Amino acid sequence: MSFLRSDANECELLSSVCGEAECLNVEGSFLCVCPKDQDYNVMIAKCEPTQTGPLVERKDCYYHLSDENLCESVLSSLVTLQECCCTLGAGWGDNCEVYPCPVYGTDHFRQMCPCGRGFIPNEDLLYGITFPDNYKGKTSINVLP
């Protein structure tokens, strides 16, 4: 006995599933498509203008700068400068081009990490971008136990 499976058209079955966005049925699922220069916000089912502010650079965070195998001492990838240097990072960069983090206890370190090691400021000091709303009201975020 064999059963024929057919793809359900979620766009027809779930009216207004994409809100104001165009619903596009695909094999086994659906996509919500917005006009050019807009992104779909799944939380509110609306198309919103694409954020055009400065992009926060995300690079590799290196644990030891003195390693012979520097390129293999990546602590974490796709992190901001503050996320790296205010935690356990010794350097930040990509493709093994690493910029040292400020030395702990120096004025430069205190400017970048005003709450000390293990805390990330609630605003990216380099780019002036604030973190998401769930961090609002906090002066820092504890990332180390």
UniProtKB/TrEMBL annotation:
Domain of life from the UniProt record: Eukaryota
Keywords for the protein's UniProt record, in alphabetical order: Disulfide bond, EGF-like domain, Glycoprotein, Repeat, Signal
Signal sequence, start to end: none
Pfam families: EGF_CA, TB
The TB domain, residue ranges: 59-113
InterPro entries: EGF-like_Ca-bd_dom (IPR001881), NOTCH1_EGF-like (IPR049883), TB_dom (IPR017878), TB_dom_sf (IPR036773)
Protein name: TB domain-containing protein
Protein source organism: Xenoophorus captivus
